[in-house]
Structure formats: C-alpha cells, structure tokens
Write a structure and sequence with these properties.
Largest sheet: 8 strands, mixed
Radius of gyration: 33 Å
Strand content: 15-25%
Number of strands: 8
Number of domains: 2
Number of helices: 2
Shape: globular
Order of helices and strands: HEEEEHEEEE
Distance between the termini: 104 Å
Strand order of the largest sheet: 5-4-8-6-1-2-3-7
Length: about 200
C-alpha cells in the first residue's frame, strides 16, 4: 500500500515537472519568435527610413552624383608587402547614404607600375612661378611657344623601396576599380605636403 502511494506520488511529481518543462519550453520559443518578429519589424522600418533619406539626398543634390567608374583612389599605406601594399582607402563618395566601397584594398605593383613622389609647393613658391610664367606670356611674340603653366606640385620618380607605411598616396589603375578589393596599380603617387615653418 505504501509502495503504491510512493509510486503514485512519484508519477505525480514527474507529471508536474514534465508539465513545467513543457510550459517553459513553449514560453521560451514564443519569446524567441516574438523577439525575432520585433527585430524584423525594426529592421524593415530602419531600411525603409534609410532608403527614403537616401532618395531625398539624391533629389536635393547635396552630394555629387555617384560615379559608375573609378580609376583613382586615395588613402594611406596600411601595410607594405613584397609585391604591393595594403591601402586604407578613403570612401568612394562623400554621400553617407551611398555605398562607400571597400575601405581596405590590396594593391599589386608590377613591372609596369610607375611610382612618383608628389610634393605640394608652398604658396610663395607657386605664386612666384606663376608670376614668372605670366611675365613670359606678356613678353612672348605671337608665334613664340610658351611652356605649360606651372603646377602647384613638384614631382619626381621614386622606387617601391621608398614607399613607407603611413604614407598618404593616390593610386591609379587602368581598369575600373569601383567596389574592387584587389587590383594592379598603373601609377602610385606619394602625396607630401609642404613643410611648415614649425617643422623647418
């Protein structure tokens, strides 16, 4: 008799525990799906608002139209490899609602790649060269050929060994590199600003 009561009590306890486990499982599943549903609704609202903002920016013409082709990208040398560099690239567009393109690009350098150091001239140097150029034009005859106007930078050819991590560069390719993570450079320019009086 006692054994039957113990057995009956045990079965009742197992039934209650099993029922609680099932109820807990149902609750957790419902909570999971509910959270996912809320997350999906939030994501849909976010995507819709983002797209509407992007369309409005396009209509207002706040930023320059997005280009279909890009052949030059600027950035900083993040790493130097045996046959190229890893470029920490600037965004392809200033429009925050447009695709920014890969912010890290692998640039291969081959035998045809030309590398230059391009140093921006100081305002005084550029103005002096421009004054001399304008003077030549005023003194030149009608048939005399006058050289091209001065640029605001000085340029010299350098080697791959002269590139260092942290250099600001402009990289040009022969192919369209819009959205491309890896490409071969046709030209690389190391961009150097003129030294300030404090640096001198």
């Amino acid at each position: 008799m006692l054994e039957k009561k113990i057995l009956s009590s045990t079965r009742l306890a197992l039934f209650v525990v099993s029922g609680l486990i099932i109820l807990l499982a149902v609750f957790l599943v419902g909570l999971y799906w509910g959270q996912n549903a809320d997350r999906d609704i939030y994501q849909q609202g976010y995507n819709s608002a983002w797209q509407r903002a992007a369309d409005l920016i396009d209509r207002l013409g706040v930023f320059a139209p997005e280009q279909d082709e890009i052949f030059t990208i600027k950035g900083t040398v993040a790493d130097k490899k045996t046959n190229g560099i890893t470029l920490s690239a600037e965004p392809e567009t200033d429009n925050p609602f447009a695709d920014q393109g890969p912010l890290e690009r692998s640039v291969t350098i081959d035998a045809n790649t030309q590398i230059f150091k391009r140093t921006t001239k100081s305002d005084q140097e550029f103005e002096s060269e421009m004054e001399q150029y304008l003077q030549k034009i005023s003194q030149a005859g009608d048939e005399e050929d006058v050289a091209n106007p001065p640029t605001d930078y000085a340029e010299q050819a350098i080697d791959f060994d002269d590139i260092e991590e942290g250099d600001a560069v402009s990289v040009t390719a022969l192919e369209n590199i819009k959205g491309v993570e890896e490409f071969v450079a046709s030209k690389i320019y190391i961009l150097v600003e003129p030294a300030t009086e404090e640096e001198e």
